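INFO  loader      accepted 1 record
INFO  loader      residues=229
INFO  predictor   begin
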Amino acid sequence: MQKMFRAVIFDLDGTLSDSIHSIKYCADRALEPEGFGPFAEDDYKYFVGDGAANLIRRALAAGGDKDGSHFDSCFARYKEIFAVDCMYQVTPYEGIPELIQALKQRGLKISVLSNKPHAETIRVIETLFGAGCFDVIQGQVDGVPIKPDPTGAIRIMETLQVKPEEVLYLGDTATDMKTGKGSGAFTLGVLWGFRTREELEGAHADAIIAHPMEALKFVEEAGHQDNGK
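INFO  predictor   done
INFO  writer      dumping tokens
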């Protein structure tokens, strides 16, 4: 029988927070002095997902800088701008605060794993949800490979002292599904974020949900199975 879920790992951008406005706002300003951009929000939905460096590389490539000759200056500028304006027009998705409350009421541990720089990950989470709401917050740091490498997810599981089969992993991209699967978690693809159902299905999400509160049925079904052993 499936074990009861004891913890949830959330992706941040496109899963917990609607942050595409801030990403576009900061990246367009970083690219403009070098003559690149602006790009549409739909473009940025595909530039993001694999860390800030890859965001800038993809934007430059889309603008014609295929060899990345402007990368160093644009990336340095982006980091400076983003450190100040990472909260620009950022909001939690509808239903996310209610899901977090419901999970905590059921005794689950909640955590965040993001490829966003660690300091900005903490700032976004604590601004949107308050300090201490999440049990673990992990952004991009030196020495830990970015997603889809599962190292960050495995470290969170070890910190929370849970087994992989006791963890739900929620994310909106193929990168997230690969990360969750690589760590042994049950992967829930979410449709309110930056990518499509087709991408999530292609990445073999264990299930796909259209609204945050739908995640609860997996928690409750697992609990019923566990109680009925």
